[in-house]
Amino acid sequence: MDTITLNEQSGVKDGVDQDTVDAVREVGGKYKHGWSTDIEMDYAPKGLTPDIVRLISKNNDEPEWLTEWRLAAYDRWLTKTEPTWAMVDYPEIDFQDQYYYARPKSMAVKPKSLDEVDPKLLATYAKLGIPLKEQMILAGIEGAENAPAEGRKVAVDAVFDSVSLGTTFQDELKKAGVIFCSISEAVREHPELVKKYLGTVVPVNDNFYATLNSAVFSDGSFVYVPPGVRCPMELSTYFRINAENTGQFERTLIIADKGSYVSYLEGCTAPQRDESQLHAAVVEIIIEEDAEVKYSTVQNWYPGDENGKGGIYNFVTKRADCRGDRAKVMWTQVETGSAVTWKYPSCILRGDDSQGEFYSIAIANNMQQADTGTKMIHLGKRTKSRIVSKGISAGKAQNTYRGLVSMHPKAKESRNYTQCDSLLIGSECGAHTVPYIEVKNNSSRVEHEATTSKVDDDQLFYCRSRGMDEEEAVALVVNGFCKDVLQALPMEFAMEAQALVAISLEGSVG
Amino acid sequence: MLSIKNLHVKLEDEDKQILKGVNLEVEAGKVHAIMGPNGSGKSTLSYVLSGKGGYEVTDGTAKLEGVDLLDMEPEERAAAGLFLAFQYPVEIPGVGNMTFLRTAVNAQRKARGEEEMSASEFLKVVRAKAKDLQIDAEMLKRPVNMGFSGGEKKRNEILQMAMLEPKMCILDETDSGLDVDAMKLVADGVNALRSEGRGFLVITHYQRLLDHIKPDVVHIMSDGRIIKSGGPELALDVEHNGYADIKAEVA
């Protein structure tokens, strides 16, 4: 790929033709969700102090125990240091130069009718492609849930900066016994469940970012599926960071009680800004006996520009605990955005015969850095895990797979299969695979396969000779490379992910 | 249809001249064959015409219906109606054959400002054409050329040609690696596509393919030039006497 420093005004450097300049410009503008919504916000003062923690807690009408829980986390956080073992390099983050809470002014009181909803919020979700019907419910209008839905039903919780705007299909889900709401609502309406499960999978002191999240988390989603219930529709949360210099600290808690099933999707975008922004989320999933959870993510945070300016720092702790026997969890992630990704969705296979699966596509283009993978902790007997990771690097990006497979002494006759493939586009990027394997019993089996390949010029020429342009050809070849993982995604997400793969790689060849 | 004048081509990274002044006119509705010994520049000619990288045109022109091909990107040449059936079709893991075909068809339609083919219409057309080439549903689903036998790969090339309906078809040693039955199937596929408006350039080592695809004109290529042209009898002549006689005669 050509690397050209552009002079903004004159535009053209000597010896560079205008076409190339235009092409490079266009690549910088390819992130399709880079616009922002100009809206009046309430911010908590910049910086992080116990008072800010109290303020966030107060804004959410939280009970005393949760305020104390947060403050304890804050004290812990002060004693912790940022992890440095990941293969990512970014300027030091000034944690006092961030806003930890930002809420659209109009959301201070929940709107009850269309007239009360801020039209700018409506327009934001329309522009992101959320259907109108849902959009109306998203903006928090009560009663709209009863209107007939177009097409297949997907319930949505929309989180805008620090607050949830609303959750769709709540009534219909309630009939099935499923609770789906924002975590702040759950704290108010179902405190017993939150208190019982919060922090039991990712403990408060787990790691620097999880501890920070525990102190300042704002909104995120809460799901409870009662015993024996198959959730009647897909659940999803759409995260949007809009405010400047503001971190998003979402917290999601999913509980699948005995014999239940739920499929949950998560999407995220952010405006294009020159300043990097912090996103430190925690997701906890509890899966009881014979229950199954599918968790899919299409992560499309703003990746920064082609010179590495701006973009989201995505430091995320996601973990699922298969507590009961025969519990099953499947993580599927498509990571295309963020300037820096630090994320290891993990499975604790505690119950006997429990199963964990991890399917991942991580794309890093331009100056993006991704250090991502999973941990499979086998504790129960005959537990099974499967890891399929596809890493794609282009431009000057660095992409690392880091994974732990641990077979504990009691995890007799357990099995793991890991397949880890890396694809390189161009000659300035890097792919790295760092597997950790610990086996502490002699009846378990661990398999690891890894490949690294380059996008082949002959493949591209073959596609182009049939009429596809270069970017279409790259997208086709890369989508082929990712097929095993794309197939694991729910239908709608798979389509979106395929298109996203193509967009993320635009400008990576030539 | 295809008009090549004084085409000179060298390798981009090496000071090696491969084509040294090729002149060729393929008329619409005609089949021209190029024969020649190894290393005479036959495959290079097909690659340069379709726009493969690694070559540098030092002189001459190549036009398709009066439009200069050499300035175009490979995909633009394809949209303009040029098709190359590869000697070694490339494998693309994970990409279904059907997906590949549909992407190609619609990319060309889009480039020509035509409407894209709907999924159902495409399916109907591809099934009918695949049947003629004895390509079953299973082969349409498999990743492009992955695990295909030699014959399957070549039939797949012809299926692509049938779907894309190019104006000018170049077949690069389509007979290599085929047994007699497979060759007949491929030849039938090609013959079915012969029409008034379409030109063919068939590159081959052996006369046997030309028993099945009857050429109107046969050219002999040697050392980067076309040294002799004639009717179908020229191919038989080569079959019996080899290239040495012709080379000697021209020299």
Walkthrough of the structure:
The complex is a heterodimer of chains A (510) and B (251). With 510 residues, chain A is α/β, with parallel strands linked by helices. Chain A has one domain (34-504). Chain A contains 13 helices and 23 strands. In chain A, strands 5, 6, 8, 10, 11, 13, 15, 16, 18, 20 and 22 form an eleven-stranded mixed beta sheet that branches. A ten-stranded mixed beta sheet of chain A has the order 4-3-7-9-12-14-17-19-21-23. In chain A, helix 2 (50-59) packs antiparallel against helix 3 and helix 7 (183-189) packs across helix 8. The longest helix of chain A is centred in the N-terminal third of the chain and has 16 residues, at 64-79. Chain A starts with 17 loop residues before the first helix and ends in a 6-residue tail after the last helix. Mean pLDDT of chain A is 83; it is low at 1-29 and 134-151. With 251 residues, chain B is an alpha/beta fold. Chain B is built from ten helices and ten strands. Chain B has a six-stranded mixed beta sheet, with helices on both faces. A four-stranded antiparallel beta sheet of chain B has the order 2-1-4-5, with helices on one face. In chain B, strand 9 (217-222) and strand 10 form a beta hairpin. In chain B, helix 2 (74-80) crosses helix 3 and helix 6 (150-164) runs parallel beside helix 7. Chain B: Residues 2-248 form the ABC transporter domain. Chain B: Belongs to the ABC transporter superfamily. Ycf16 family. Chain B: One of its GO terms (molecular function) is ATP binding. Chain B: This is Fe-S cluster assembly ATP-binding protein.
